[in-house]
What we know:
single chain, alpha+beta, Trna Endonuclease, Chain: A, domain 1, 4-stranded mixed beta sheet, 3-stranded antiparallel beta sheet, 7 strands, globular, disordered N terminus
Amino acid sequence: MTEDDGGVRGKAASLFAERHTLVHYLIVRRQLTGFEAPHIFFRHGESVLPVFCVRKEAGRFIASHDLGEGWHVRGYSVGELVSLLVALHERVALVSFSPLPGHLLIEDELSHLTSRDDFIASMIVRRDHARALPQPTTG
Length: 139
């Protein structure tokens, strides 16, 4: 195998891994401390973290709400998201997965809410399933 072949195979394996890495998107704003704090809203007195599976959905959410200056979309790996949710355990009670812009007040949206702990558990199961997918052969 030549050095060039390894580079091509390495790039292919990297692209495969990238496509099978689960990424979720949060709306965040950088704090003075440098920490990117996620946008949290309240529903019936409980704190809700909106989590998106598509970057554009998060962007539409920002565009449809008056969140103020500095809010932007940031991607998180499963490990990063789980760590963040554990760190925010006292601030986040529920997760809303890919909420539709403008529908936060509709009772039907409550069906998209899950507890923080159940969401963490589902992320771990999905990550483990993704890891079990067949990897590309290198030759």
